[in-house]
Amino acid sequence: MSAPTLEVRNLRTHFFTRAGVVKAVDDVSFTVEAGKVMGLVGESGSGKTVTGFSILGLVDPPGRIAGGQILFKGRDLATLPEAEMRGLRGNRIAMIFQDPMMTLNPVLRIDTQMIETVLAHAKVSREEARQRARDALGQVGIPSPDERLKAYPHQFSGGMRQRVAIAIALLHKPDVIVADEPTTALDVTIQGQILAEAQKLCAQFGTALVWITHDLSVVAGLADDIAVMYAGKVVESGPVTQVLDAPLHPYTLGLIGSVPSRNKRGEPLRQIPGMTPSLLNLPAGCAFRSRCPRAEPGCAEPPPFAEYRPGQHARCIHPHQEAVAA
Amino acid sequence: MSETLTAPSAAATLAEPIIELRGVSKRFSKTLDFAGRIARRLGANLREEVVHAVDGVDLTIRKGEVVGLVGESGCGKSTLGRMVAGIMPASEGTILWRGRDLTSLNAAEAREAKLRTQMIFQDPYASLNPRLKVQEIVGEAPQFHGMAKRGEIESYVDEQLRRAGLDPALKRRYPHQFSGGQRQRIGIARALAVQPEFLVCDEAVAALDVSIQAQILNLFMKLRRELDLTYLFISHDLGVVEHLSDRVVIMYLGRVVEEAPAEEVFRRPNHPYTKALLAEVPRIEARKRAFAGVKGEIPSPLNPPSGCHFHPRCPFAFDRCRIERPALQQVGAGHRSACHLNDAA
Predict the structure, then answer these.
(1) What's the gap in Å between the CA of A134 and the closest CA on chain B?
(2) Is residue B199 domain-resident?
(3) B117-120 and B49-62 strand pairing
């Protein structure tokens, strides 16, 4: 079997601030195969977005990748010279941001921005580039792409802008797309449209998709595998069905219990007490232990990331191995 | 648990209405600027733009009920909430507070009605004055309205904070020293401090993380039991609304398209828009499903489609839908829907 499209191994991205070292990403590992969707789930401050930025090589000082490997088809992106990274970014690896206005330049027409992206990586004529831009817009379901190419970003609705951002990410049929909360700002019916596009994309081009979100319900329907992050670490990972139906880590269980769902109507939600800790002064050992109902003295030691069931890992010394109704 | 759930909703059908909206509309118009007025005088075809944010809405909320108001952005749900809370006057129609027209009340009664209705906002960062300490934020209104004497205000504030799940020891801090979830609790303590009976929550948990959102939702349910509160819970999140509400009202582009008891809406949705909305909600129970998406965009409320607002996106639309506005009609017990298909069937 050949190397997976993307393999992140023990990634550490730290921010060296005046107040101290913020370990935003601290030992994160996951693998995404071609045509598969990896759901990276976590609450705010869990390090999921910084993980995405690290893959694209977009971490700015005072942050830097302090350790680990990001293997793209076997090449380590973490140590790749910037010039080579530029050749890959937007070409083989693309990113979709939460706010499409972060991708789009408000003072340039859509065609200018898209043609520019095509010409940056492909030696084609301007006319050919325009044709590719047009096709990409059509692919993401934008009606009358010829006219829409001549429009400015502000003339589009939020959902349309996100489609344009996706179309730009698609221009070079990348092998990996990192999508950072791309539907969070959108309405339910528009979110459904974007999720449908994402599914089509993976099936059609075999793109490996890293879908970063705080919403467990979205990854439940979309992802093949899931990694749950807490305070910079992956606390649990595995196939989506296993992780959601039989979570090992108490945090995953708490998170699932927090989501209002059909069969829990009117009942109090099982809540996680307390709040997410500051990343500046994380205590040694398990970062979740102050909120964990199963905490014991042994949790003061850093728990290992161990495989408790085939393909399902957890960073916990007392996982829920018995069947728990989530 | 199901007993506590069904008991108030059964009582709610008999209880007196706390607020009633009859044909309420809200229009916002953008007046022409100076250049525009001159251009019009010179013969340019310029008109003032009018947005029908809320268009002829009837709504009754009974004492002890939790009514969920759902809709996508621009559907007018926040505007409706503000009119219900008395922050914004209606352009048309009447709003009845305990059976009496809000505009006919004398000053003292109007103040009483406003005091009994409090609002909790989406953004806990923007809705708290950053220059006031928590005890001032929570204590100001009850002191002004004479609910607590000067000497007792400290213990009064402590009680409000404790009820909202905050440690009273933190009351000398400023809002920026709190996390999002804690700030939302401050907002709740502030609303409860004037002893309201009706809370309008406008996307009150939308800005919070999942685990914090669960804490606040549990708090809302606890307060409802303890204080016998009535809620209008405005949200775009169907999961949250389903969890909390006795009755659900669905809005699309300024109009109510469907209204029914919560279980009924989720089990037997009638309006094509409600059906589409329910089909698109990502659910944690669903694994590796195919998303389809409702075709089309949400139209601009500046220039809404004719007839039924949903007809350009509706898979079942026929000629009548393009011409005639469908009325809200009874389709089941307490279940009303505005769709011409119900006549055809």
Answers:
(1) 19
(2) yes
(3) unpaired
DSSP-based three-state secondary structure for B94: strand
Whether B45 maps to a domain, the answer reads no
> How is residue A48 annotated by DSSP?
H
- For residue B260, being part of any structural domain is answered with yes
In contact, A113 and A120? CB cutoff 8 Å: no
Q: Classify the C-alpha dihedral A186-A190-A196-A201 as positive or negative.
A: negative
Task: Give the domain range for residue A47.
Answer: 6-92+172-245
Count of CA atoms in the C-beta half-sphere (13 A) of A86: 4
Type and span of the H or E element at A282: none
**ipTM for the complex?**
0.77
* SS3 of residue A239 by DSSP: strand
Which CATH number characterizes residue A200's domain? Answer: 3.40.50.300
Closest CA to B160 of B221, B218, B208, B227: B227
Considering only the beta carbons, identify the residue of A192, A271, A275 that sits closest to B291: A192
Domain containing B200 equals 2-29+51-344
Q: Which amino acid is at B25?
A: S
Q: Is residue A310 part of a domain?
A: no
What's the CATH number where B109 sits?
Answer: 3.40.50.300
Inter-chain residue contact B236 with A214, CB threshold 8 Å: no
For residue A46, tell me if it sits in a domain: yes
Contact B51, B27 (CB under 8 A): yes
For residue B285, the chain A residues in CB contact (below 8 A) are 220, 261-263
Mean pLDDT of A204-220: 90
How far the first Cα of chain B sits from its last, in Å, is 39
Q: What is the predicted pLDDT for the residue at B24?
A: 93
Report the residue of chain A nearest B3, measured CA to CA.
A266
CA distance A193 to A210: 18
Q: What total number of domains does chain B contain?
A: 1
A293 touches chain B (CB under 8 A): no
Look-up: residue for tokens 């690896």? A93
The CB-side HSE value for B329 (13 A sphere, CA atoms) comes to 12
What tens digit of pLDDT does each residue of A101-124 get?
A: 778 999 999 999 999 999 999 899
- CA A161 to chain CA centroid, nearest Å: 19
Q: How far is A240 from A226, CA to CA, in rounded Å?
A: 5
A289 within domain boundaries:
no
Which residue numbers in chain B have pLDDT < 50? 1-12
The verdict on residue A176 lying in a domain is yes
Specify the number of domains making up chain A: 1
Q: Do the Cβ atoms of A195 and B282 come within 8 Å?
A: yes
- The reported pLDDT for the residue numbered A326 is 46
Tokens standing for A134? Answer: 């047009």
B38: in domain:
no
